[in-house]
Amino acid sequence: MESIQTHNFKLNDFEGPLDLLLHLIRNAKLDVKDIFISNITEQFLAYLQDVDALNIKKASEFLEMAATLLEIKSRTLLPQMVEEIEKEESIENKLIRQIEEYRILKEAGEKLKGLENLNRFYKQPDPSIKKQRVQFKEFCIENLLNAFQKLSEHRLEQRVQAAPRIIVKERFTVPEKIKLMREIIKERGSISFFALFSKEYTKGEIVITFLSLLELVRLNVIRAVQGAVFDDIQLQYNEEQLMDSEFLVFSSTTT
Amino acid sequence: MKLENLIEGILFLAGEGISITELLEKLSVSESELEKTLERMEKKYSGNSGIHIIRYNEKVQFTSNPEYGENIALVLNPIRERELSQSMLETLAIIAYKQPLTRLDIEEVRGVSSDYAISNLLKHNLITIVGRKNTLGKPALFGTTDLFLKRFGLVSVDQLPEFATTLERLKQIQSSETLEAELLQEKEFIEID
Question: Is this model's pTM higher than 0.95 or not?
């Protein structure tokens, strides 16, 4: 067994599995396309001893790469029994392309860093300058309903054109959706009405989303603002809302 | 009234960048006259001058001389940006050279999840949503902002270091995929051993 030289870096020093691979390749002074003729895979796995099992996200990214490397390596070791008729590119080439692209852009990033300038300051415009200001007009519930109807019709058209399919259970309930939307809008400050509806939503899910939206507007948790008729509607988190006890009771009944 | 002095006053009040087109429209001067004036001003506001002029994305703006940045900060304490972290820089470079592209595209290049970097770059206004891709879910497309140009001293995106060559190299990598696919199709007819 070849001995893997002890490494000086920790896994955390790397931006991700591609970064680590690139480092190993550079160290070994190899061409990217030669990685599988070397022991880069073994070196990569040696680094993985470091992986912090508690940081699942990071661990999974490295593990996925390890699995890919092992698959490629094992294919080169096993005798080719059947010439596979692959319509797609081999995993090996896909990985090599990925590494090359990453390398190019990583170098570009380093050059970019050289240009970074933090010592320039700018003046704000003089406050006496009048600019055209965009004012969103408050609007009435009717406009909201019209927007919903437009959305609904659009979706219905699409559904009619689609082939018959299985009816699936809705993925969320109204209380769940209310909770989720409240968090999203609170975090983002403001969100477009149409952005709340994924193209994949069933009709039931569209209705649930809309009902949740109405409830949040009713409870004054969010405000809805629209520029002109048929324009997009912006939903803004209402910072000044009072803690409505009714709302608290409602949200505590969510499972 | 000299055009140069007039523009000095305008730039001072405007603070933020003013577009060349707006100057041309509102001042009714010829493009060449404006251009010559701006070139003279660029020479005047350079070197040791405390005020510099920068041009980016067809706009022009006054800025403080970066050499004096430290001392200016001592006196006035304006908000100073921190250096970008490695992962943000990587993500930013990817977006700068490959814009517009989606979050998924970015993650494919980096090989890791990029939510954090993207949201930070958005927060710092170095990137913004420039449109939506016409596929399932209508994912947002990201591109760089004017602030990005200013921060890295670029007049426009194609002034990125080795912009043309980098794009060319990236294209070559993409096209080798199609080459590979063609080669594989030929392989279909090879005898099984």
Answer: no
Structure tokens at B179: 């080459």
Residues of B in contact with A113 (CB under 8 A): 84, 89
Is residue A217 classed exposed, middle or buried when 0-12, 13-18 and 19+ CB atoms within 10 A define those classes? middle
Reading the block at residue B60, the tokens are 């022009």
Q: Do B111 and A88 touch (CB under 8 A)?
A: no
Range 66-85 of A in CB contact (< 8 A) with B:
80, 82-83, 85
Q: Which amino acid appears at position B91 of this protein?
A: T
Condensed to tens digits (0 to 9), the pLDDT of residues B15-50 reads 888 999 989 988 888 999 999 999 999 999 999 999
ipTM: 0.75
Give the H or E element holding residue B142.
Answer: strand B140-144
Q: What is the mean pLDDT of chain A?
A: 78
Q: What count of other Cβ atoms lies within 10 Å of the Cβ of residue A70?
A: 13
Task: Give the residue-averaged pLDDT of B101-130.
Answer: 92
Report chain A residues whose CB lies below 8 A from the CB of B172.
none
**Contact pairs from chain A to chain B, CB under 8 Å:** 160
